[in-house]
Amino acid sequence: MFLRRCKLGFRTICGGRLGFMSSLPYLDPPMARTQDIDTFTEEFEIGSHRFKFETGKIAWFANGAVVMGIEDTKVLSTVTSAKGDGVRDFLPLSVEYQEKQYAQGVIPTTFMRREGAPKERELICGRIIDRPIRPLFPSGFFHEVQAIATVLSSDGKQDPDIIAANATSAALMLSDIPWRGPIGVIRIGRINGQFVVNPSTDELSLSDLNLVYACTKDKTLMIDVQAREISEKDLEAGLRLAHVEAGKFIEPQIRLAAKAGKAKKQYKLSMVSVSTLDKIRGMAESSIENVFSDPSYGKFERGEALDKIAQDVRNVLEEEGDEESLKVLSKAVDTVRKEVVRRRIIEKGLRVDGRGLDDVRPLYCESGYLSRLHGSSIFARGFTQVLCTVTLGAPGDAQRLDSLVGPPTKRFMLHYSFPPYSINEVGKRVGLNRREVGHGTLAEKALLAVLPPEDDLPFTVRINSEVMASDGSTSMATVCGGSMALLDAGIPLKEHVAGISVGLVSEVDPLTGEIKDYRILTDILGLEDHLGDMDFKIAGTRRGITAVQLDIKPAGIPLDIICLCLEPALKGRLQIIDRMEKEINAPRPQDDRNSPRIITFNVSNEGLRRLWPHKKRIEEETSARVSIGDGTVTTIAKNQECMEKALQKVYFLTGREIEVGGIYKGVVTSVKEFGAFVEFNGGQQGLLHISELSHVKVCRVSDIVSVGQELSLKCIDKDVRGNISLSLKATLPQPQKDDAKIKDLTSLKEIEDACVMTKETTLSAEKLDSVLKSVLIGQNNDDKKASFGSSPSIVIRSAAECDAQECCTDQTSTTKSGDSVKSSSSSKLQTVTGLDRKKKSSAVNSLNSSFDAPVHKRVSSSASKKNQKGKDKIISSVVDSETSVVKSTFSDSHSGSVSPNSLKIGDKLIAKVHQVRARGLVLELGGGVRGMYRFEVNGRKDFEEGKELQVVCSSFSTKGIPVMSLLEDE
Questions:
Q1: 866 bridge partner residues
Q2: Neighbour-count burial of 856, counting CB atoms closer than 10 A to its CB (0-12 exposed, 13-18 middle, 19+ buried)
Q3: What are the pLDDT digits (tens) for 633-670?
Q4: Model pTM greater than 0.70?
C-alpha cells in the first residue's frame, strides 16, 4: 500500500486504483470572475397600470430580445432572421406564442409531463402578433423571419397576449432586421357603459366588449372584437379611444431603441424592375382586362383564362431567352392583374362579377339537411358554401383549457374545416391549421353572444363547419350557417347572427403614401380579397355587433375610412338575416323518435357512487353516453330506443327522483289490507292505496296486485317527509259506462259519503233524509223495472256485509274525503266515540221519519216491504260506520287490554316492536291496536322485532294512529 504524500498530491490506493488528490489542502481555491451585464429599461404608465421594457439581460444571441412586464406577468419576445439570400415571392414570417405551465408554478398533466403541440389559444395569440407586424416589412423583403414570444411568469390577472405583441414590436425595433415600426397594441373593455383601458381578466368577465386594437402612430393595422350586440356607434367610440391609448406604447419603444438598438442590416430585396414590369404589362394587360370585363366567367373559368394568358407570356419570353423576366414572371403578372382590377373599381365602379359596390351575392339557406343529427344547415352566398352541424353533449364533454388565464373549461365550441376540395386542390391534412383555428374562433365569438346562459342550457355544444366551396368570406358564411343549425337543434337563440366581409380598394400617392381615392366593397370575393387592401369581417344581429376581425395588406389604413365601413356592413347583414329568418326563425322542437335525445336529472350522492363503477358498461351496452356531474346525471342517446335502454339501467342503479305527475316503474314489495307498498329502483318506496287500484270498487288488494309484480304507476302526491302516494288507475283508461250505471254509482257514492264522519261531531239527519229519499225514488223506479225481470241497479248491503268489507269501504272513504279528522288527536277520539245512545236514538228516529215521508204512497205494497228491509240495513250501516273510522286505521280490532276507544294521551303501557322501518317503528299495543314511534334526527337505535318497550301515548296522527314515545327518552 502506498502512503499518501500531501506535498506531491498523491493519495493511497483504494480498490486497486492510483489517484491524485482533488485539491491541495494548503492552497486557496480560485475565485470566480464577475461578469457585468448591460441592461436597458424603459418604464411608463398607461391607465392605472405600469409597464416596463427590459433588454440585455437574457437571450443575447437573438437579433432582438425584449422582456416586457406588468406587475408579476412577464413575457420574453425574440426575433431572428435567416442568413439565406431570400429569393422567393413571399415573406416567410412565422410567429409563435408559448404558454408553459412553469409560468404559473404548475407541472403539466400530460403523460410525458411536458407541453405538447401548440394549443388553440397559443395559435390565436400568435395570429394577434402576426397580423399587425406583417404589413410593416419592406416590399421585396422575403428573408425568413421568426418571432417567438414566451410567457415567463403570469399572475393570472392580465392576459399576456397584449404584452407579447408590444414586446415583439420592441424586439423588432432593437434588431437589425428592416421594419417600419413600431406599433402599439391595447385592449379595451366596457363595463356598465364605461370604457376600461387594459382590463383585467376579472373585469373582462363583466365587460360587454373585448376590443384588441393595433396601430402605428396615425394608421390602423389590426382590429379584433368580441362583443355582446354593441352598436356601431359605440364600437366607433371604442376604436377612437383605443387608437389614442395604443399610441402610448410607441414612444417608449423609440427611446429603448435609441439606447440599445442595432443598426439595420442591408438585405437584398426581391424587386421587379420597372423595365421588366412595363414589358410584361404591355404583353398581358389588354388580355387580362378582357377577362375581368366579362362577368359571365366563374371563379375557375376566370382562373383558367388568366393562367392561359400567363402561359402565353412565358412562351414569348422563352423564345426571346429573357431569363430575368422569367424569374419574376408570376409576380409581375399578379401585379398587372391587381392594377387592372383596382383601376376598374376606382374609375368605373365595376366589380369582377358585375355587381354593384354594395350588392350582396345571391343567398341559399336550408335547415335540417341531415335529419338524424341534432341540428344541421346549409348556407351559400354566391359560390361560397358551408355545411354546419350541431352536436349536443353532456356538461362533462366540455373542453378543458390549460391556459394561464381565463376559464378552465369551454362548453361551446366551433370547429372550422377548410378541406382542399373546396378550392379544387389536392392537399394533405396535418394537425391544427393556424388559419382554420383563427376562422373558427372568430365565428365562435360571433355566436357566443346570442346563446342562452349555461343555467338555461346545461349542455356542451359543438358546431362543425365544413367548407364545401370557397369564393371568399367562408368564416362569415360559417356564422350564418351556425346560427341556423343551432335553431335547428332546438337551442333558443336570442336572435339570428349573420356575418359579412367588407373590402377596400384605394389609390395611394406614391410620393407621400397618402390615400387619394378609395372604394368600399360589400361582400367581397376571394379575388377581391387577394387584390384588395382590406378584409374587414363584421358579424352581428339586428341589434348590434358581436364579432369583428380586420386584416390589411398595406402599412396601415386611416381609422376614419374603417369607421365608414360599418354602415354598409350593417345593410348587408340585415339582408342576410331577412333571408335566414324565412328559412327558420324559431327553435325547432325535437319530437321525432329517431332524433337524438338528451336527459338531465338529479341524483343523490349515494346514487352517484353506485352508478360510477358501471358507467362504462352501460355505455357499451346501450350505445349511449352517461356524464356524471355535481349531483346530476346527463344521458345522451342517438334515438329514443337507446335512451330508454340507458335510462332503465341508470335508474336501476341510482333511483330516479320521484316527482308528482310522473309515471314510474316499480315492484310490489308487500301487500296490506289498505293497499300495497311499491319499491322503485334505488330503494325508494311509495304507497299504492286500495282506492287507487282501479276505477271500480276493489274489495281485496290481492285481487289486483301481488308481491313481485312490476307496475307502471303515477305519483299523485309527495309530502315534505318524502312519503310518496301512487296511483294505478291514473295510468288506466276510463271505463265506458252508460247513463244508468253512472246514475246508480253516483247514488251509491252519495250514500257511502253520507255514512262517513266528516268534520261535524254528529251525523246530519237532514242530509241523510234528503239523500235516502232520492235513492228510494230510484229504488221505486227500479222495482217497477224489476217486475219485468230486471235486477235493481242499487244494492244495499247488510251491516254484516259492511263489517266484512270495512277495510276497503271505510278506509277508502276516509282517504278520499280528506276531511276525516283534521283536529287534534284528543278531539278525534271524542268525535268518533261521542255518539252515545241518545244521539244514536235520535239518528234512528230521523231515519224512521224519513221513511214515513209521503213518497211511500207512490210505492207498491211489494216495494214497500223491500224498502222496510232496506231501511233497517241502512240504519245499521250508518250507525256502525261511525266507529269504523278508528278501526280501519289499525290493522285489526281484537279484544285486549287496549282498545281504540279507551286509549288516551298520557297512557303508559308495554308495547312490542312489530316492524322496524327506515324512519321509525310499528308497535303492537295490544288488543289488535298498533301505534308508531318516529326516530329523532340521527337518533336511530338498534331495535329488534318482538322486543318489548315501555311507551307512553304522546299524540295521534292525522289518521288517528297513536304516536308513542319511549319512557326512557323523557
A1: none
A2: middle
A3: 888 887 788 888 888 888 878 876 777 888 888 889 99
A4: no
